[in-house]
Write a structure and sequence with these properties.
This protein is mostly helical. The protein is built from 13 helices and no strands. The chain has helices spanning 20-43, 55-84, 92-107, 114-139, 145-165, 172-203, 214-233, 237-256, 267-289, 296-322, 333-350, 352-355, 360-387. It is globular, with a radius of gyration of 20 Å. Keywords: Membrane, Transmembrane, Transmembrane helix.
Length: 396
């Protein structure tokens, strides 16, 4: 396929050449902006800009359907091109899709903008789903439909959130946010099973065969589904706690089979490994929260801050290098520091409150600052990479 700009004289601005570029850049900027706003609301006593949605619900929604979904969009639009060998949207169409994501991020901050945010948010997910489904259907890669189903379910979760925001469904905000969270966790567990051992085997620099077990794959899927349903839609906390304990054991066995000491020499390997570990620890903390040993919010932030945050930072860093013609085995040194900062932030957010609750607000503020600085480092490194053409002069 001949594409515009597939020559050394292509335009200097390549931001809309492929999906990962605008969505990774937008996600990173929003990671800084949204947490800065949350820092002001939670730590500095700022007044909430909207009375329709409470600040905690806004924070949860925007980290799930704002930040995380932007990363997913960039990843899928890029990965589907690789899977199917069919060019996904670029140029003006990609710019329009990006605007469908951006407009709700601004509109949701204002009471009069909530309806606009709802319409544009749902439109964004529907358009994104169509953009990735069409190439998959054309080449009949039915094995990818499971991932696509999770994307459509994200749309339903977002609808639930807005139905709650408009007082149509009483528990809509909670159902929507938690469904979105666990769908993303499920997507990470699914994709992590595919890519983390693959990256490790090819990235450590020596021959290694990592262990995977079919019984783990099947049991983790079934038990996670039961955990999700019991946690979000029932009040059986003890059942959910025991399911979380089973998930902790299952995924601990899995991640033990992926370990090799060479990962610690590669920031984009150990960051993925630790992100998976944060999610596993989240299951353990959730199990303990069922018996009131710890707060359930520590479990959630282990999965969200440590798990989603670290895995998305690492994947954005890796994909941005690989799809601009650069060497993924030699990332910029500053990105390693960004991963370290985010890991430290996750430890502070999750573990220090267990040791000392008297400084809980301080731990949150410090962890937020670690998050902000980590993503500022990402932006310093990757903004030029994301907006400039590939170094090999190919289109993409």
């Amino acid at each position: 396929m001949t594409l515009p700009g597939q020559n050394p004289n292509q335009p200097r601005l390549a931001l809309f050449n492929l999906g990962f570029r605008p969505f990774f850049l937008g996600a990173a900027v929003y990671a800084v902006v949204s947490i800065f706003i949350w820092l002001g609301l939670y730590g500095l006593g700022w007044s909430a800009p909207t009375s329709t949605i409470n600040p905690i619900a806004w924070h949860a929604h925007e980290m799930i359907f704002g930040y995380s979904l932007a990363v997913i969009a960039g990843f899928l639009l890029t990965a589907v091109k690789n899977w199917t060998k069919i060019q996904t949207i670029y140029g003006f169409k990609l710019g329009l899709l990006f605007c469908c994501w951006l407009i709700p991020r601004i509109a949701i901050l204002f009471d009069q903008g909530l309806l606009i945010a709802a319409v544009m948010d749902i439109l964004f997910i529907l358009l994104l789903a169509s953009c990735v489904l069409v190439p998959i259907i054309k080449v009949k890669q039915w094995k990818q439909l499971g991932i696509m189903a999770k994307l459509l379910l994200m749309g339903l979760a977002n609808i639930l959130f807005y139905l709650g925001a408009f007082d149509i469904v009483e528990s809509g905000i909670r159902w929507g946010n938690y469904t979105g969270l666990y769908l993303i966790i499920g997507l990470i567990l699914t994709m992590g099973r595919r890519v983390i051992p693959f990256f490790i085997e090819r990235g450590v620099g020596y021959p290694v065969t990592l262990k995977n077990y079919l019984w783990l794959d099947i049991s983790s899927l079934v038990i996670f589904l039961l955990f999700f349903i019991s946690t979000v839609f029932t009040h059986y906390k003890i059942i959910a706690a025991w399911l979380a304990a089973l998930l902790f054991v299952i995924h601990l066995i899995r991640i033990a089979g992926w370990y090799t000491r060479g990962i610690w020499h590669k920031p984009l390997l150990w960051s993925l490994y630790l992100a998976y570990a944060f999610i596993i620890i989240g299951f353990l903390l959730f199990a303990l929260s069922g018996y009131h040993y710890v707060s359930v919010f520590l479990a959630i932030h282990s999965m969200a801050f440590g798990g989603i945050g670290l895995v998305t930072l690492s994947m954005m860093s890796r994909v941005s290098l690989g799809h601009t013609g650069r060497n993924v085995q030699q990332p910029p040194k500053l990105i390693g520091l960004a991963c370290i900062l985010l890991t430290i932030g996750g430890v502070i957010r999750v573990f220090l409150p267990i040791l000392d609750m008297s400084h809980y607000v301080n731990w949150i503020v410090i962890s937020q600052l670690c998050w902000i600085i980590a993503f500022v480092f990402f932006l310093i490194i990757y903004t030029p990479i994301l907006i400039k053409p590939r170094v090999d002069h190919q289109f993409g």
